[in-house]
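=== RUN LOG ===
request id: a7f3
mode: sequence -> structure
chains: 1
length: 322
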Amino acid sequence: MGRMRCAVAFCIVACASTALAEPYPARPIRMIVTFPPGGSTDVIARAIQPSVEKRLGQPLIIENRPGGGGNIGVDAVAKAAPDGYTIGLAAAGALTITVSLNEKTSYDPLKDLTAITKIGESPFILAAHPSFPGNSTADVVALAKATTPDGLNIGHGGNGTAMHLTAELFSHMAGVKLTLVPYRGTGPVVSDLVAGHVPLGIVDAPSALAQIRAGQIKAIAVTSLRRTAQLPDVPTLAEADLPGYESIGWYGIIAPAGVPAEIVARLNAAFVATLQEGEIAQRIRAVGSDPAPTTPAEFAAYIGREIAKWSAVIGRSGVRGN
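=== RESULT ===
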C-alpha cells in the first residue's frame, strides 16, 4: 500500500512537471480588441490574425470588448491570468490619455500590464478648408497671431481626446492663441471643414484621407515625427519649425503584468514578424496607419513617455475630459 501511494504521488508530480514544462502556446489564445467590430483597429486585428496564428501554431481568438474609450477591454486584460493566453489590442486613449487626465481607472498601465509590441500608428493631420489663405504651418502661425483676440478656430474630436491634446500641444509649441472647438468625433470635424464652417481642424487619416485626395480639404501638416506613407508630400510639424513635435494615434499588444519573459518574447516575435510581411503592412496602411513594431522594452518606455508628455500638456492647459 505504501509503495502504491508513492507511485501515485510520483505520477502526480510527474504530470505537474510535464504541464509546467509544456511549450507555449499549447492552446488557443484570446485577444481582446478594445473597440467594436468593423472599426479600423478591429480591421487590423483581423488582418494580422492568420499570420500570428501560423507563427504561434494556435488559434488567435478575437473578442471585441468595447466601451469606456477602451478602458473596459484593458481592464479585462489586466485582470486576466498572466499565462500568455489572454492578450489585448489597445490604443493610446486607454493606455495614456485617460491616465494623464487623472480619470479614475481600475488599472495602472505601467504596473498592471505587460507591453508586448506597438502594432501601428496613425498621425493626426492639421487640415484646412481649401479657401483657407495659408498653405503651410508658418502661414497658420502668422494668421493666428494676426487674428485677435482669440486666434483662429480649430476643430477637434472632443474635449479630453487625443485630438484635443494635439491642438493644445500645437498652440503651446507654436506660441499662438487658438480657439479650440470641440466636436463629437472626427467625422463631424471633417464635414465642417468640407462645408467651410470651421477654417482648421485636427483630423485623422481614416476619417479624412478620401476628402484630402478629392481636394475637398487640404492637409497642411502631419503630427508624426516622420512623414506618413499615406501623405508622403505633406510635411510634419516637426519639420515646420516645431522640432520634437509629435502626437499620434497608436495601438499595440498588451498582456497582464507578470507574464513570463519567455512568453513575452514568443508573442513579440510572432507579432513583429507578421508586421514585417509586405501584404500585412499594405493592409494596415490601407486603413490609414503605418506599421510600427517594437521590442517589449521600447513599447513600455514609449507608454511611460506618452503619459508624462500628456500629463504636462494637461497641467499647462487645464484640459478636462468630456
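=== NOTES ===
Residues 30 and 86 are 5 Å apart (CA to CA).
The two ends are 70 Å apart (CA to CA).
=== END ===
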